[in-house]
Amino acid sequence: MPSRCKSHPVHHLPNKPCLDFKSLKELPDSFKWAPLDGPSRALELESESESESESVPVVDLNDPNAQKLIGLACKAWGVFQVINHGVSKSLLDKIEACGKSLFALPVQQKLKAVRSADGVTGYGPARISSFFPKRMWSEGFTIVGSPLEHARQLWPNDYSKFCAIIEEYQNEMNTLAEKLMWLILGSLGISTRDVKWAASPTGANPFKGASGVIQLNSYPACPDPSRAMGLAAHTDSTLLTILHQSSTSGLQVFQEWAGSWVMVPPISGGLVINIGDLLHIISNGLYSSVYHRAVVNKTRHRLSVAYLYGPEPNVRIQPLPKLSDANRPPLYRPVTWSEYLGIKGKHFDKTLSLIRLNNDSNEDNDNNSTLINGLKRGVDRTKSIKVDSNTKILAAFA
Ligand SMILES: C=C1C[C@]23C[C@@]1(O)CC[C@H]2[C@@]12CCC[C@@](C)(C(=O)O1)[C@H]2[C@@H]3C(=O)O
Ligand SMILES: O=C(O)CCC(=O)C(=O)O
Ligand SMILES: [Fe+2]
């Protein structure tokens, strides 16, 4: 999202100030969530053997069947990992080191680059924090466009290296995101000719003007991981998100048909790809955005870097005509990324249902009423189920 795009303040509980996590030897009540269900203790799970069918798919982008495998993963999971994606391990190491050095700064220094109440860029708790009564065990740094201004405040004499790495990462991620978009759209039978929703009137490069927000997330070691939440369950307001996670596990995705949380194990040099809400919309619900969260660890610090990729902010996003017809009418009204973020800032996970078209015949159409393991993977997010005792997710098995 280019910096010219206006910010979208979140409206709910007041945002909580940042603090020095290292100084807390016990988990304060304000951070105590109801005990987490699912695999909450990352280290324990690392030693558990998971069966194939329960693991998030890993796709080798050099595999001639990559497009087909990606389609299957999007339909069944809304998330997959990629290897041989073309982004060098050394760049992933460099961005991780950038994040580590940023979060290792003293709190007072980090607060010099704090995200303002109506801003997007800068240091602070996750934007969604304001929707939850309990605090999250994490801190973040969001970068839209150039980080120069904030980097100067953080490292007055030594900011150029950080800026150069961020720029290189933005470029590499943008290229990969566009490649992944074509693979995902290709798996739905969509080609360049079918995609006219973005900038170019000829449809030549529909991703012209598409860009990404970089989100550095830090999850310090935590005295009581069973009661703490790193980042609460959410879907991303993106077309797709590319996530690099350090070697400590913590990312979990919600497997809707099984009703359970599944850990996504870090793969050295691999990247996690999440389907976001905007892809959910353009695919007319065929590929659902995935609920995910981050849990924390008793002894190990964890870092993740998300590249939240979306279209040019004022371009209308809507179900692709080729994916809707009389039997499967468009499920969502047109919306720009900018407008979507504004609604998300006010209504959080009710956003998809708020832009859903009120059409009775749409009831069973999301994700093509697919039966997976005998259960419909319903994503009519107008009904609610509880995915855990902390988060009520607006999703249901109809
Ligand atoms: C483009 C954006 C997506 C995001 C809100 C934002 O304006 C910038 C930060 C993004 C992020 C990263 C962490 C998780 C998340 C839910 C949040 O609180 O801030 C996402 C937002 C999103 O996808 O809605
Ligand atoms: O840290 C993680 O694994 C998840 C981060 C995330 O979901 C995000 O930045 O949107
Ligand atoms: Fe996310």
UniProtKB/TrEMBL annotation:
Its EC number is 1.14.11.15. Keywords: Dioxygenase, Iron, Metal-binding, Oxidoreductase. It is an enzyme of class 1 (oxidoreductase). InterPro entries: DIOX_N, IPNS-like_FE2OG_OXY, IPNS-like_sf, Iron_ascorbate_oxido_reductase, Oxoglu/Fe-dep_dioxygenase_dom. Residues 209-311 form the Fe2OG dioxygenase domain. Pathway: Hormone biosynthesis; Plant hormone biosynthesis; gibberellin biosynthesis. The keyword Translocase does not apply. One of its GO terms (biological process) is gibberellin biosynthetic process. The keyword Iron applies. Its cofactor is L-ascorbate. Gene3D superfamilies: B-lactam Antibiotic, Isopenicillin N Synthase, Chain. Signal peptide: none annotated. One of its GO terms (molecular function) is gibberellin 3-beta-dioxygenase activity. Belongs to the iron/ascorbate-dependent oxidoreductase family. GA3OX subfamily. PANTHER family: 2-OXOGLUTARATE (2OG) AND FE(II)-DEPENDENT OXYGENASE SUPERFAMILY PROTEIN-RELATED. This is gibberellin 3beta-dioxygenase.
